Amino acid sequence: MNKTIFNFRNFFYCSLCFFCMFSLAFAGESHLSSHKAVFGEAEFVGNISNKKIDEASGMAASHRQNDRLWLNNDSGDNAVIYAVSNNGKGLGQVQVAGAKNIDWEDMASFDWKERPYLLIADTGDNKGKRKKCTLYIIEEPVVTNHGIFPKNVDIQWQINFQYEDGPRDCEAVTVDVAAKQCLLLSKREECPQLYTLPLFPTPGQRIVTAKKIARISTLPQPNIEDLIQPYGRNRSQPTAMDITPDGQHLVILTYKHAYLYSKENHQTWNSCFDGDPGIIHLPLVGLGSLIQREAMCLSLDGKWLYLTSEKLPAPLYRLEIRLN
């Protein structure tokens, strides 16, 4: 057989196989776009100007000021939270008295008895060896009309806990106020595991046990295109999580996109994960553009999703969410 023809046939069949595999890889996500929610395009609103925020791993919307966001750094920083405007301008920082930053990851904000609180999740565990992790709950710092921040804020209560089935790396934590629960989503498994903790543990409990309530198999797995991207094999890993103010929708951020799950007909969280999520398309990874997207939150009114990345520059993006 002519060698040129043989090589051409090989090239043709290889190309055809690659095209089929590529198409199949995307087929698993195409149906996710049809969802009751409507998502706007992500827009860049500015770089975070405070250069101390170089490992942004958690973000929460202020419940005192609608245009303010709170952030924390990953491990390596002090026990400090930072405030920025909703266009990234640095506003101030506050030390959390008595806390340790072993591996801070996500943040959450919520109201309880008409007081605004922030939850800081010291839940990172890359090697899966921590015997216990901690959630710190503080009252959101009061900032004066002149923009003066308090130097310190006290811990109102903290939750020391362990998982019922051994250590887990967790970067996605939020608060379901209606259920008086904290939700924690593991990171490293192929199908992330969802755990719950009581927001108000029984007094005197030194270590609380996080209970597993769901296994999330509906987050899309990396496809062929993903594998050539930064963090390619990890692109489906959850890095942040938040609940809409009405408590009916939950957004999970991954290294690729974000995904929205919705309760219907009084579902519980563990049952709503059986259905496919709505896909929230995020910008492609580029130089200085959300390379390591690990911090995300919903605005106080639930209309905007904000996210940023570890490393510098730390771009701040937002996109509109219209829920039907």
Provide keyphrases for this structure.
Neuraminidase; disordered N terminus; about 40% strand; mainly beta; twelve-stranded mixed sheet; 21 strands; about 325 residues; five-stranded antiparallel sheet
Could you describe the 3D structure shown?
This protein has helices at 3-30, 269-272; strands at 38-39, 43-47, 56-61, 68-73, 80-85, 90-97, 104-112, 115-122, 133-139, 152-163, 170-176, 181-186, 193-198, 208-215, 238-243, 249-254, 258-262, 278-280, 293-298, 304-309, 315-322. The protein is mostly beta strands. It has a single domain, classed as 6 Propeller (Neuraminidase), CATH 2.120.10. Strands 3, 4, 5, 6, 7, 8, 9, 10, 11, 12, 13 and 14 form a twelve-stranded mixed sheet that branches. Strands 1, 2, 19, 20 and 21 form a five-stranded antiparallel sheet that branches. Residues 1-34 have low confidence and may be disordered.
What would the average pLDDT be, to the nearest integer?
Answer: 87
- How many structural domains in the coordinates? 1
Overall number of strands:
21
**What is the straight-line distance between the termini?**
62 Å
CATH architecture identity: 6 Propeller
Query: What top-tier CATH class fits best?
Result: Mainly Beta
Silhouette: globular
- Say what the CATH topology is: Neuraminidase
Strand content: 35-45%
Computed CA radius of gyration, to the nearest angstrom: 21 Å
Secondary-structure-based class equals: mainly beta
The number of helical elements comes to 2
Element order: H for helix, E for strand: HEEEEEEEEEEEEEEEEEHEEEE
Q: What can be said about the biggest beta sheet?
A: 12 strands, mixed
Share of helical residues: under 10%
Low-confidence sequence ranges: 1-34
